[in-house]
Structure formats: structure tokens, C-alpha cells
Amino acid sequence: MKIAEIVSEINRTLKLKDERRERLISYSREVIRRSGSTILAIHRGDSDSAAENLEAARQALHNSLEVCKDQPEYLYLGALPQAMQEFAEASIVMAVLRGEDLPTPEEVGVPPEAYIAGLADAVGEMRRYALDSLRKDNIEEAERMLKAMEEVYVSLKGLDYPRAVVPNLKRRVDMIRRQVEETRADVTLAHHGRLIRGSIERAMDKLKEGGA
Question: What CATH number has the domain spanning 1-109?
């Protein structure tokens, strides 16, 4: 085969790879954007928007994985690993905040390492929801979130994998521990505040009765 023919064939192959890469970038960005919108909608209490965005993210992820079907090395390139992780996080956050069973990695449609990373990052959103609940004086809901956070921490703290398998796992687990401790302190403080308010209200009621 002549050099020109060889180069021409290589050029066609590289063009196809580049087109596939561009599609993968586009789909991955859509997964990331829609996953973020899902979490924002959940915190706003907009369940319809959350479900719509999560489904759109799921479809974009499906499209991404279709691109990788005969090129599995693409699964670990570019923004796709982050996209899978963020979709897992959004799926987990939605389930926890709704009080549902957690979906499995197979149900989410991501590899185990992406699921673990998403599960770890979901704890930050659980803390955010717990703090929102405390601001509304819903201590019981904050306690439910704290329990979920503790379960994640207990489940993950025994895992020990190199960075190449689950990036920054140790750092993530350390962060979860701090978030759990801080949330526990916030919930305890809220309980004390409720007790103090109750004592003050009872004392005021007695004063009113005495002055009547």
C-alpha cells in the first residue's frame, strides 16, 4: 500500500474517533448539568423538575455509554468518569431524601467505583438538607439525614483502594467523618435549643397564670 493510501486510511479512522470523542464530551456535559439540576430541584422541593432532570441525565448517560460500546477505553477518558459519578450522586441523593431504598450500581447504570465516589459525595448534600431541616425546626428530619450519613460513613471507612481505582477515597471518607461530626453537633444544639425554648415557654405560662 502506498504512503498516501495509508495516511488517508489513518485520517478516516482518526476523524471517526474525533467525532466520537466530541459526541462523548457533549453527552457527558449534559449528564453533569442535568445531575446538578436534579439536586438543586430536590433541595427546592420541586420533585417534578428533579425527576425530569434525572431522567434526562439517565438518557444522556445511556447515549454516552453507547458511544463507548466498541471503544471501552473511552469509559475512563475525558468527562465521562465525572459524569457517571455525578449521576450516581444525584440518584442516591434523590432516593435518600425521599426515604427510598438506595439504587444499586446496576440500577444506576454506572461502574462500582463511580458509584462509591457518588455515594461519598452525596453525604455533603445530605448535610445540606439536614441544615435546611434544622432551619425549619424539623429536628426529626435532620436526625433522619444524620442517620443516613452515619450509615454511609460506617460502610465506607473500611474500604482501602488506591487512587487509580477510586480517586481520593481516603480524603472523601475523612470529609464524611467531619460532616457527620458537625451535623451531630448541630442536631444536638437544636435539641438543646428546643428544650430551652420549652422551659422558657412553660415559665412564661406560669407567670401569666400567677398574674391572672
Answer: 1.20.58.2140
